[in-house]
Design goal:
Number of strands of chain A: 11
Shape of chain A: globular
Order of helices and strands of chain A: HHEHEEEEHHEEHHEEEE
Number of helices of chain B: 22
Largest sheet of chain B: 6 strands, parallel
CATH architecture of the domain at 104-351 in chain B: 3-Layer(aba) Sandwich
Structural class of chain B: alpha/beta
Structural class of chain A: alpha/beta
CATH class of chain A: Alpha Beta
Oligomer: heterodimer
Helix content of chain B: 40-55%
Number of domains of chain A: 1
Distance between the termini of chain B: 46 Å
Strand content of chain B: 5-15%
Strand content of chain A: 15-25%
Number of strands of chain B: 12
CATH topology of chain A: Rossmann fold
Radius of gyration of chain B: 24 Å
CATH class of the domain at 104-351 in chain B: Alpha Beta
Largest sheet of chain A: 5 strands, parallel
Strand order of the largest sheet of chain B: 3-12-9-6-4-5
Chain lengths: 203, 519
């Protein structure tokens, strides 16, 4: 017998003889916040992320341009901003080791937790979101869902091989509880609300 | 639902004033508030180096003496105080999150029901997961026990000529003695979670399922790092230590031949597994090398994505009092050009399923909330248990691995029930602890002194009249006995604490006098 068969047989021998029906999970969305964007911003800040307030006039991408002005290596996967390292030319993830700023667009965001979902399609090379020193994420305000129950109804979890909720930057408090950003991954996560360019697919 | 609960000031009565200092230069501020997501923001206590108390002494298969190791931990007051307050801080943050979500109790009930349903159909859901994962291009392996797990992983690494492995923290691999096995076959394992890396470099097991080095002071870490990665032994600044570790580990991550993670959840309907970390180290381990191996216990499975929402909402709130881990990553298949393996590990779980009183311990999602709230755990340190799993959940899991070796552990509890009250999947932990005491006594795994006391208590508890007489007599005796009779070596309850003042009247007498007559 294979190990698989041994384990499954042992499970069947030991299954508790009790009736346990699968419960229905409500959406828990009866009392949504007045503004999903404001709720997202507050949750993001609690988790150590930075919400970039878009300027009311002029270039909406100005807060991003300001952040990357002094950066040596910028890797962008979004059409709105050009970097100086082309993600398409990356042979192995290690090639991204010296990226200062990565700029990507999130599939969607979650107001409840301040999370952004980054899929393999959003990242092109998954490791860019972890090897870069800093991460900047663009989110379309129309792509914010109220809570995780709504989030898990989204198609990304069925369409992509990799999808990760980022909720603030890399963090640790493993030494005496002192909070530190940039434990292994990015030292900062900034989010700019900006609508998708017209004609771009939404997922 | 609530998206932002107000901060409740800096903690409660247990916190040392230093932990609430307003002028903490290390604090990270946002919108005028101090951030305390992830694992906490407590300002550490100022400290002079106090040697770290080490864990339980292991003598082969002989019963671990948890009380002896706990005694040494308590004898190191700075370690004990930091440990106690840090974990109580996490418990308070968990409470804050709980109060911020009106449906909290409903989520706990759902989580429990989903887990019980899945466990009672475990064969079907594992079968479904395997089929879906395979169709997505994941190689699925099965391992009956720790030895087979280690051999399977070794086989995959050998096939790829891999000599170095970066990995994220996994209690399952601790269970399997994975690092020791890999060392014996010449493969270098590099833990990438900061706490776990500290423990690896110090050649010590993790003392907590979520915060593996929580029993160490910063000075202990400075000592370990100065010995192993060349930091300044006199510098115990936490930011300096964390940054030095980041710089030392990064080249190892970039050059590793393979990556390994555990898994917090598996979703049967999509063949997905989910890994939650705060450091992003699991995503580095999974996404930098070409080869990703995930070792996952068979009980981690849930049926559908809609169920995942329930558990993700509960996990980090229960563990650390943060709404979400910084990273919650969903792996459904290998990336382009990559290779992905999942090893499904039994190691005693299928047998545990057949234990009528104990099978629901398999609902555990390893959040550590029961440890953070446990007065025994907080004051004795996780390494005092001498087992992979410590704290209340350890007391009910460890004996399933070895009844003799862990026969003392179910007695390391006051049965106060706090563990059951905070458990996000509603495991009746304290009732199972009590049930294990009975099982171990019946199976003669318990020493004579404890057994005699248990037997006497059993006789009393089964006879209400005798019980009432005994309680009244004991209260009278406690009020009049000299100290040396109460606080002696035979009464473990009198060590390191005052026995509570006896009431003037038993509850039964009070009831009889005040309420009974009115009937």
């Amino acid at each position: 017998m294979s190990s698989r068969d041994v384990i499954l047989a042992s499970i069947r021998t030991n299954l508790p003889c009790v009736e346990r029906p699968l419960p229905h999970v409500p959406m828990f969305d009866g009392d949504p916040p007045a503004s999903l964007l404001s709720a997202f911003k507050e949750s993001l800040h609690r988790m150590g992320g930075v919400f970039l307030d878009p300027p009311t006039v002029g270039d909406i991408l100005e807060p991003v341009r300001g952040k990357i002005a002094d950066a040596k290596i910028v890797c962008s996967t979004v059409p709105e901003i050009a970097g100086n390292q082309d993600i398409a030319s990356v042979g192995v993830p290690r090639d991204l080791a010296d990226v200062d700023f990565a700029i990507v667009r999130a599939s969607f965001a979650v107001a409840e937790t301040g999370s952004v979902l980054l899929s393999d399609a959003d990242l092109h090379v998954n490791a860019v979101a972890y090897l870069a020193q800093h991460l900047i994420v663009l989110v379309d305000p129309a792509d914010i869902v109220v809570n995780l129950h709504h989030a898990y109804r989204r198609p990304e979890f069925r369409n992509h091989h990799y999808a990760s909720f980022h909720t603030g930057p890399s963090a640790t408090a493993d030494i005496e509880g002192a909070l530190i950003h940039g434990a292994q991954g990015v030292r900062s996560l900034s989010v700019l609300p900006v609508a998708r360019a017209a004609g771009k697919p939404t997922s | 639902m609530s998206t932002a609960s107000e901060p409740t000031g800096r903690g409660g009565a247990m916190l040392h004033p230093d932990l609430r200092a307003g002028d903490d230069s290390d604090a990270i501020m946002r919108d005028g508030r101090r951030l305390d997501h992830a694992e906490g923001a407590s300002k550490p206590l100022q400290t002079n180096p106090e040697p770290q108390p080490r864990g339980a002494k292991i003598h082969g298969n002989r019963p671990v003496d948890q009380a002896e190791a706990a005694g040494r931990f308590i004898a190191a007051p700075e370690h004990e105080k930091m440990h106690d307050e840090r974990l109580w801080d996490l418990r308070q943050k968990r409470d804050r999150e709980m109060h911020g979500i009106p449906e909290w109790e409903e989520l706990r009930s759902l989580a429990s029901a989903i887990k019980e349903h899945t466990l009672t159909h475990l064969d079907l859901y594992l079968d479904q997961f395997e089929a879906n994962a395979r169709s997505n291009g994941i190689h699925v392996h099965w391992a009956r026990d720790a030895a087979e797990h280690n051999q399977v992983v070794h086989g995959i690494l050998r096939d790829h000529g891999a000599k170095s492995l970066i990995k994220s923290k996994s209690m399952l691999t601790e269970e399997c003695g994975f690092r020791a096995y890999m060392a014996s076959v010449g493969i270098e394992v590099i833990e990438t979670d900061l706490g776990e890396r500290i423990q690896q470099l110090d050649n010590e097991d993790p003392s907590h399922v979520v915060v593996p080095a929580v029993h160490k002071l910063r000075t202990d870490v400075a000592e370990v790092f100065s010995r192993t990665i060349g930091t300044d032994p006199a510098n115990s600044d936490v930011h300096y230590l964390a940054e030095a570790q980041r710089e030392a580990t990064r080249p190892l991550i970039l050059n590793a031949d393979a990556g390994m993670t555990g898994g917090n959840f598996m979703v049967a309907e999509t063949g997905t597994f989910v890994v939650c970390t705060n450091e992003g180290n699991a995503d580095l381990s999974a996404n930098v090398p070409r080869l990703h191996i995930a070792s996952i216990g068979i009980e981690k499975i849930i049926p559908r994505l809609e169920h995942l929402a329930v558990f993700v909402r509960l996990l980090s709130r229960s563990a650390l009092g943060s709404p979400m881990t910084q990273y919650t990553s969903h792996f459904r298949g290998p990336r382009t050009g990559g290779e992905m393996h999942v090893v499904l590990v039994d190691n005693g779980r299928s047998e545990r399923l057949g234990l009528q009183e104990f099978w629901t311990s398999l609902k555990c999602i390893r959040c550590g909330a029961c440890m953070n709230t446990c007065p025994v755990y907080r004051r004795s340190g996780g390494l005092s248990y001498g087992a992979t799993y410590s704290g209340p959940i350890g007391l009910i899991i460890d004996p399933t691995f070895n009844k003799r070796k862990y026969s003392n552990l179910p007695f390391a509890s006051s049965l106060n029930g706090s563990c059951s009250n905070v458990c996000p999947v509603k495991i009746n932990i304290h009732e199972q602890i009590y049930a294990w005491r009975r099982v171990l006594v019946e199976e003669h795994e318990v020493p004579l002194a404890k057994k005699a006391a248990m037997k006497a208590a059993g006789v009393l508890l089964s006879r209400p009249v005798a019980y009432r007489a005994a309680i009244a007599a004991a209260d009278t005796a406690l009020a009049h006995l000299p100290r040396f009779v109460i606080y002696n070596g035979l009464n473990a309850w009198g060590k390191h604490r005052e026995v509570p003042h006896p009431p003037k009247q038993t509850f039964h007498n009070w009831y009889h006098a005040n309420r009974g007559a009115k009937r």
